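Protein fold
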Amino acid sequence: MEATLPPNPASSAPEGDPPTEVQRNRVSVTPFGIPGLDQILGGGLPRRRAVLATGGAGSGKTILGLEFLIRGATQFDEAGVLVSFEESRDELVENAAGFGWDIEALERDGSLRVVCIDIQGAAQGVETGKFDLAALSMRIDNAAAGVNAKRIVLDGLNNLLSAFRDEQQVRTELLGLFRHLKNEGLTIVATGERGINGETRLGFEEYLADGLIVLTHRIDGRIAKRTLRVAKCRGIAHATDEFPIMLGNSGIVLFPIGAVDEADEFAACEEIISTGVPGLDAMLEPGGFYRGGSILIGGAAGTGKSSLGARFVEAACERGERAILFSFEESPAQMARNMRTISIDLQRWIDNGALECRMIRPQSDSPEAHLATMMDAVRRHDPDVAVLDPISALTTVGHDDEIRSMLARMVDFFRASRLTTMMTNLAAGGRTGEAAELAVSSLADAWILVRRIEQNAERNNIIQVLKSRGMSHSNSLCEFDFTKDGIAVREAYIGVDGVVLGSARHAAEAKDRMRAAQRQTTIDASKAELQLREQELESRIAELRLSHEAQTRRLEAAIREAEDADGAERAARDKIADERS
């Protein structure tokens, strides 16, 4: 695990300080110029202090010193002096050119002075006399005054010290040299060989310096790895863990976790971008992922992880964006050929420059070298989306904690670069992908699981959203299929007999349709019989109504006839009664 970096105090520097100095309580610091190293140091090296960088052959000591001067001259307008005790001026110029540094141009501009010391000449005849560095101090003073230097590098200091045998005198003179240079306003970086039993060759140099940076260069699993550790730095808080570094095309690359300044961090974005697969978009409530997020696609071999990644970059190119795809297994030509079978045309976008496909052999370099390669490619191509396929391939070139550390720094860098990143992870044999071996699922904003289910003597793909921060998403398993027309994601079919996939889905659908047809036939027959019965009932009702009406008319006629007869009879009686009276 890497330590939490000390806060960068640059934003709290009091007004009026020089732009290259940062006030740290009572200690002002000067930026080293290497972003990650300045983060580890909490802003930079203590100003007017001596820092010793030690390490074995090939660990990058001279490069570290050179970069301190180059960046000081080119980025912070601070001139410097390079004092070399082991290389000639021509060698230094040639070696620096390999990193794109033009020492001769800086000398012409008056921002750098190179002083090469002939050790054999300097030490000749001194063994029997008194050792002092007065002549050396004078040469350095003249060189520093000539360019108004603020920085100085003493490269190969052990070559000077080992030429003399009086250890006590050497200690006294070296301490005096450091004090003299600091009093002259110089910030010192001295480089020296690492000792057999300690951090320094002679065993006392580290105690005379205010700071100690330890560089290592070792072989691990046939892969060369370099590290940097700030063992001490008086007057400032700093991280003390060992950080991986590499020598890139333009110097030392060091990108610790948390090396992105807060001011550069990517603010939460509300914009939604499509995955390129409508069915997968439908599983996410907003219809896609948040721009600038990181997505992990996990699953076993053959489950479609690479296809999802390829479709993701193609969709970005279709939107008019730029994309980059890092493949750790297939060449760009292989991937373009394979994706054509599912109607994903990567070659079209490669040809017009919207898509850059890079194949990286994991075994070819260390994880840090791969990280530097990807960072450099992202800076040059300036993409909107990136795909890494698969990150699990990196497990062959480092320990799990190294890979996790590298991936964490990569995610930090991609987020700071405003990149939406999709990573695929190949699950180990026998696993489904839900157990992420690299423990990167916590780094991802969204986690998609793809896997295969054996059913009815065939294998079928399913896809599920395990998490997607900041949005609602489907919890259902969906069927995931590849056709000549592209990638299809649809809801799993739930029939009478349960969830079925693949060809069994078609059989289940036909069976369910047959059952539905039979039920419909029964329903239709029952409805017809009911209608017939209703018609028969209505007919009988009509007959009864007619019979009722006829009976009603007959009875009404009989009633009228009886009423008429009764009326006539009463009239006759009334008439007879009238006649008698």
